[in-house]
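[worker-b] picked up task from shared queue
[worker-b] task type: protein-ligand structure
[worker-b] ligand name resolved to pyridoxal-5'-phosphate; SMILES cross-checked against name lookup, match
[worker-b] sequence length check passed
[worker-b] input payload:
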Amino acid sequence: MISTRDASGKRCSYSDVLLAGLAPDGGLFVPESYPRFSLEAISAMRDMSYLDIVFLVKSRLIDGSIPDKALRELITRAYPNEAFEVEHGQFTPVSPIGDGIWLENLSLGPTASFKDMAMQMLGQEMQYELERRKESLVILGATSGDTGSAAEAALKGLKNISLFMLCPQTGMSEFQKAQMGSLTGGNISNISIRGCFDDCQDLVKAVKKDPAFSRLGAVNSINWARISSQIPYYFSGYLQVAKKIGEPVDFAVPSGNFGNVLSGYIAKRMGLPIRKLIVATNENNVLEKLIKTGVYELSPSTITSSPSMDISKASNYERLVFDMLDRDAIKTAAYMNEFENTGKVALSDYGKSTAAFTELGFESDSSTHADRLATIRSVYEESTFVIDPHTADGVHVGRMHKKDAVPLICMATALPVKFEDTIKTALGFVPPRPTRFVGIESSIDKGAFTVMDADAETLKSFIAAQAR
Ligand SMILES: *Cc1c(COP(=O)(O)O)cnc(C)c1O
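[worker-b] inference finished, payload out:
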């Protein structure tokens, strides 16, 4: 693997990347080239289980870092049937909602967001590699909601890993707090910061700057292992919807950090016949503006009713722009530095136009609170499915871009149970709770959150004292 900002093209192994997160030069790791599947190879996946599809796709993306037999075991451990509400043996089932549009449910995992699927795999891969090296790893992360609980559910009890998860003291839904609160203990520490999500992220950066803490692992989607484990979602969705292998299918993806839809782009580069990749944003529409105008501009995020898409910048876009700039690391570093220094950068200053997005199939629009509510209502009326607010953003924007008979798959990125208040506003009732979540608010352990000021030194001493 190589870094998007390293002109020397120095190679790193998949397993080093797995444990490192960001590249030392501040870039993101990407494969040297994308492996390709022929249409015959894709046809052969048609009757395979989701786990077999994960195996085929992952084994082409890990540089032989994990032997086949071990990889199969890790996949089986990452996707135990009892931790997922598997429907008819399908981990990522699709359902038609009318007008040639399908929902692909990616949220059947332990914490009910699409982040579970890849996070479970990440945990198993990290533990495997650490055990092999006889090492341990401290992971420090920040969450405004779904990442925290998905990471904790995936890493809980893994012997060689200690996870410290920062969250803002206010802002998360009661349900999300309860999810994290009931996963604490052992190798998992929840830290509630007197501040906002940006303070949490700044703290992670401040701690990482200290050489004594330079070897911290990452569980956010800058970690390539998460991106690569999301690529199978697209293969699985395509195989369930395409009538004939080879015909085009479009995807609409509720987006924040650009991780999920980037995985779709890579699936396309690997030979999957995807036509459009429709990037749906909420009121925080950095990505919509970028794809429509070619200008990438930082903008302070506001809190919306699809909070997991409330971002001020989209970290994984760097992996796409590296390709758009012809994989020129010097240009990419200059482009990203301009963005980081001035908060704004135009593709046209780097010899490209918005055509670079169109050629790769990218389209984008945004959705508002009112659109979200109307979409939750209309999908319920037309199909009786209750969708969550993020999925509603995807369906709203997907419908805007549906112009012909090519099937459209909308990624369902969370279960509505996580966002009961918004569903109640839209439909007048609270969605039924899956049994595993009944009474979760009363299951928070006392002391499940250590409350702390936003101070790097306090945090460092806490980690030093608690880490295994
Ligand atoms: C994280 C998240 C998103 C955004 O995904 P990205 O990979 O960051 O673009 C969308 N919906 C839900 C429910 C999420 O938790």
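[worker-b] attaching auto-annotations
[worker-b] The radius of gyration is 21 Å.
[worker-b] releasing lock
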